[in-house]
Amino acid sequence: MNIIIPLVKLYNRNIFTYYKYMKNIFFFNVTAHEKNLPYFCYGAAADYEQEDVIKPNGFQWFQINICLSGSGTLFLNNLEIQVKKGECLIIYPNIPYKYIPGKDGLIVSWVSFDGFHVSSMLNFIGIKMSGVYKFLEPEFVSASIKEMVNFGKLSISDQGYAGSRVLYNLLLSFKETLISSSMGQNESQYKKIKPAIDFMNVNLKKQIGIEDIADSINVTPQHFCLLFKSVMNQRPFEYLNSLRINNAKNLLIHRKDLTINQIAMMSGYINHSYFCHLFKMQERVTPNQFRLLYL
């Protein structure tokens, strides 16, 4: 009992509440081999009663923390930011911050993670610093984290790779659904280009041109390129290439029977060499090297 009481005081809750929320937390058994993955999870919690968090030296891993109910205040870089339901904290490693629940309490889900490709992915998405972010589909964020918590039911050898896959898909979804809290105007602009994004997702395996994509929202190619760049911070074909490469990555992981050339064709690339060139530019590894990471 002398050991448990200080721990309970640290979390500022009674012993029964502490054990209730510990059931919703899962810490991954990360092996040295799994730390070589582009993405891997350290821990996750679902429907968690957030306590005061004071980190003068920051936290050693990346974090996503979504507000499910209640509210909180984030103190970051001399700013005081209110956090409401559906909004996410995304915190880079070693960044000092404080996170304090509001008077109405704060229920969150969170995941801590790392990997050699995380920084590049977040930069690609447009999340270049710690802060509070809003997404068009916050339910997908909370559902993904809950799925990670449930990986405690898997065998230890399967947990790390399962967590890596779900984390990758979660981060990838941010590219389409991210709305920075300081970009309120972009929400309506995003809705304008959303049918074009859907068109690219459906037709990524086909040979499509900028005219085809612009036609999906009834604008000229020139206007579409300007609109897309202003919202997504990248050109349409940069986005389409990222979709195709990510489709190829899923095939590399799940379809071991396919050759690299077949995967290139199924991802919209006729030229095998061009596909390998683009893949290495985005992932920093070749398609074969990427496949070996998931064997």
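(the above was protein one; protein two follows)
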Amino acid sequence: MGKLRRMLVDASHPMTHETPPSSPVEDLRAGFIQILPLTIACVPFGLILGANAAAKGLSVIEVTLMSALVFAGSAQFVAIDLWQDPAPWAALGLTVLLVNLRHVLMGASLAGKLDRFGTLGRSIAVFFMADEIWAVAERRAIERGLTPAFYLGAAAPLYLNWLVTTTIGAAVGALVADPRALGFDFAFTAVFIGLVAGFWKGRSSLPVVVASAAAAIAVRHAVPGGWFVVAGALAGIGVAALRAGDAETGGGKAVLRAEADRSSTP
């Protein structure tokens, strides 16, 4: 009888198998392996960005410093596309801010998973938080916890790869008479097509995309400079906010109708 009781208790409280902790070297290797495919995929973008920057008149050193201090591919593509002499600082700064607003959400989602990093480690991790690094860090945190060693293994290869490829692109691009003849100028468009595709949620996203495109096209023909990017972003954000408000209102009305029907039922 006592044996049967113990069997019933064990069945109602199954054993939990925790993932054994890994060493820093194993975490470092795991981070490197997981980021490697994404690092390779970034090579052509780094080369194209460097070539486009050289075509706009930036030196190799300036491109290298830009990649080292900014380390944000989409923001750098925006800056290079809008770059002219004199540079439109207000439009450029606001556009880059809007493009990188997603980092606020990315940082918020990762904040609770950096408990092993310390204050300085958190600051360093946030600096290196590119989209690809954030993605592998989130997955690692869900699977077995995020450690500084894993984050270093993921961040260092991507960062160094971006520095090297953009520098090579700038050095080689300076030798190319017309990068547009090779289609390099389409890189900016391709980057944002990828961003839009990543946020696509089906037909519900279509009004946002249409409003953003219409505003950008209208402002592009009416106002000189890079303000068309800002206009498109603000229009898309506005439509998305209005649709979210309508959905919330509609949901509230549905709840009220359900409550009314329930109260009228005998």
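Reviewer note on protein two: The chain has a mean pLDDT of 80.
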